[in-house]
User: Fold this.
Amino acid sequence: MSHHPDHEDAAHAALRRVRREGRWWWVQAWQARRIWRWALLLAVLLFAALVLVRRPLANWFWNEPQVEQLLDRGDRALAAGRLTAADGSGAREWYQAALALDGDRPQARAGLARTGQAALQQARDAVAAGEPEAAQRALALARELQVPQRDADAVARLLREHQHNGAGFGVLLGRAEAALEAQRLDGSDDSALPLFQQALALAPNHLRALEGREDALSDLLQKARDAAARGDVAQSAALLQRARGFDAGHVDLPASEAALNAALEQRQRQGQVALKRQHWTDAAADFQAVLAARPDDPAAQQGLQQVIDALLAAATREAADFRFGPAEQALQAAQTLGASERALVAARQAMAQARQAERALKTPAATPARRAQSLAKLLENFAEAEARGDFLTPPGRSAYDALREAQALAPRDARVRAAAQRLLPATRACFEDRLRENRVQAAGACLDAWQALARGDAQAIAARQRLGQRWLAIGSERLGRGDVAFAQQALQQANALGIASNAVEYQALQQRLRDVDALR
Assistant:
């Protein structure tokens, strides 16, 4: 069979076309499979996303209208002044409900803030209207909604002032201002400063009450400075003390205290001058004035003790001259100023002996034999009392009593003079022996005899200081063993003997006694 070339060419072309078309089908099929794989993957991802976010999406689609509705209701309740309600229809409740559905909704938070400010305004309005209960409720709501603290505190102050006014605060303040106008500053319950203090206890920041107390204190401190200028330091100190009780930081206090200190120094100087001039009454008045303002002032204490000693010496001297009227006056003045009991006993004994001597001089002269017999008996009594150590006490049986009678009977007798010379050293030796034995009370009796026989003896003055220090030492030791009563007595004796209250030993024992009292 023969083949035509044209037919063969056509067949080959057809075959190539079929082959070519077949390969394209497979390419298309492969590309189609790739598209389906991507589509399947996207479908899976979309399904997973729907599973994960179905509730938020649903909530968003469903809650959005509900939140807007709650916010709208809150706005309407706020506009109507219905800030809170037990049935949930108040602005606070609507805004809190919206916030519960959408915690990030700024409109809900802003609504609550506006509700808090509205509550503050309602509280102010209630205060102005005289409705304290409503004001308290509104203020409590404002604080719950966390309004600024300073705003809430300001409304609270307004409420307290209104309550105080309703309770008579205005009347109390008016009484205080009237007392200030009349210059009744202090000293009674109806004076200015106590009334202002009561008012400020009710309203600590009330401006009128603060200004009134300030004016009253300024006037009181001016009175204190005026008293200091007059030399009335006791009155000045008392006024200053009361002023400090009301306001220890008052601006006029430093100047007033400086004026008092200057006046105290002036009175102290005056007392020393009067003491040197032996003007006992004036000196005592100056020292007592200083002590009334400063009870622990050592210089004033010492000056007053010097006045007391001088008065006791004057009493003894006047009695020796048989001038018993002036002697009694001096003795009474010393007692009034606080002379110790031992010193008073010694002075009285000296006066009693002087009276006996005066009576002896006024009696008819006895026979020489009778006089010698009486003198011998007195000297015998003197010797017996000396042997017992009864130099000054007991009254009527002491060596000093016998010696004074013997001196009145025979002042120039050698035995009497010898007894007098022997008695003074004996009292000194008695003091030293008793002090060495720590028998401070017996040493004090010996010292009194010593001072009675030698007024103004420098050694006796030094002995007083030694005895006072020994009292303090023994008092401190006895306090360590629990003897509080003796320690207190020691402190008193040391003070009477002239130990300054600012001495280290004195202050140490005094502080220990205070500590013991605090523990009781």
